[in-house]
Design goal:
about 210 residues; alpha/beta; Rossmann fold; 7 helices; 6 strands; about 35% helix; globular
Length: about 210
């Protein structure tokens, strides 16, 4: 039997579905270092084919104001999709939601503890739990110093579950000239973990001869 003509008058041919967008879930919580989450969102917004899903904790919003003179709407403007941290029924709360993983930038010790113990007490920790159970990549940019034993044990627990603990520690071997360069170096290293192309920082080519 001949194939039916399509709407344009040609032979009917089933079109392949569009390639799925890459999706990254970003959470900003109440540790110092809100700039890391904002810079991630800024870079990903300019990266073709990446859809960002953002959550802000209440303490995270306070830090945005304290550290960057930004409010909730300022931060949300950088994301493709925004979720209320109390909306436990959101799409990202289900393993059927396809994503490349999740970054908590920065990650408070409270959020770390909740993830380590599987509490899923809000959408941030539920989404992190989903990422872990689906064997996707979870990066926690933990910010505290010094660490106590509870912090260290929680970081070990998350690592054993497959998460990546990524304290945003600046590197000085590239001789950064500004805080912005140090932030970009760290953000670039995080994006490397997801295979997201960027030009935020030069690549290390070995020690130069003296």
């Amino acid at each position: 039997m001949p194939a039916p003509a399509d709407a344009a008058g040609g032979r009917g041919q089933e079109q392949p579905p569009p390639a799925p967008q890459r999706r990254l879930i970003i959470a900003i919580t109440g540790a110092t270092g809100a700039v890391y989450g904002i810079r991630l969102l800024q870079v990903l917004r300019e990266t073709p084919g990446v859809e960002t899903h953002l959550m802000l904790s209440e303490a995270g919003v306070l830090n945005l104001h304290q550290e960057l003179d930004m409010n909730r709407k300022d931060a949300e403007a950088f994301a493709d999709v925004v979720h209320n941290v109390r909306d436990i029924g959101a799409s990202i709360a289900s393993g059927s939601f396809q994503s490349d993983g999740m970054i908590v930038a920065p990650c408070s010790m409270k959020t770390l503890a909740a993830v380590a113990h599987g509490l899923s007490d809000n959408l941030i920790t539920r989404a992190a739990d989903v990422v872990l159970k689906e064997r996707r990549r979870l990066v926690l940019m933990v910010r505290e110093t010094p660490f106590n034993l509870a912090h260290l044990r929680n970081m070990t627990a998350v690592t054993e579950m497959g998460g990546i603990i990524f304290p945003p520690l600046p590197g000085f071997y590239q001789r950064p000239q500004s805080i912005a360069e140090m932030v970009d170096h760290t953000v670039g290293r995080v994006l490397d973990l997801y295979g997201v192309a960027h030009s935020l920082t030069p690549r290390w080519n070995g020690i130069r001869a003296g």
